[in-house]
Amino acid sequence: MVDDEAKIRDVVTSYLQKDGYRTLESASGSEALDMLEREAVDLVILDLMLPDMSGEEVCRRIRQRSSLPVLMLTAKVSENDRVTGLSIGADDYVLKPFSPREVAARVRAILRRTQDDALLADRMAFGGGELVILTLKREVYKDGDPVALTPNEYKLLLTLARHPERCFTRDELIEKVLGFDFEGDERTIDQHVKNLRQKIEPVPKEPRYIVTVYGAGYRFAGGAWP
Prior knowledge:
Layout: H1 6-18, H2 29-38, E1 44-47, H3 55-65, E2 70-74, H4 79-87, E3 92-95, H5 100-113, E4 123-126, E5 131-134, E6 139-142, E7 145-147, H6 151-161, E8 167-169, H7 170-178, H8 187-200, E9 210-213, E10 217-220
Parallel strand pairs: 1-2, 2-3
Antiparallel strand pairs: 4-5, 5-6, 6-7, 8-10, 9-10
């Protein structure tokens, strides 16, 4: 829990502890980043307004080294602010003022979405091995190099890749990736698709894997290789 207001940290962490979670607290971005080097963490709750650096910068630095889920707390309410946060790797937003019950519910939803699906094939390869997904390890490789995806980007890729050539509507993808209780708009999925294309497509503006079906949604066009 990263927030410079001790009262907010105390309220949120107390509520999460009642749900059975072990919590760690930090009052600054630099302290949080140092803590992540030492501690095994499953999710970060991150305030955007910190004394030493912005929450966006903290999120960028987290994304440079891991796909750790990030739930942002913010008083910024504009759509552009939310899209910016998602574009740098945030998995979800909670707007201030909020209830600790809502935060706990979103934490549960994010962690549920990031759990391994043991029923999937361990290895999925596309484009002659150009793109590889190792589902049990939750790892993605492009041309043999690891690709750092956010949990939502990974879930989106896996949802599409499991059903090659099937067209998913934006509403279907929102439900499968973000959860049925997500209250944002369709642009959220578009932003995740844009981010994912930047990471896995040879030429993002001419996608070979995640293809737009105009007026409908998206489909995965990469044929699986045995």
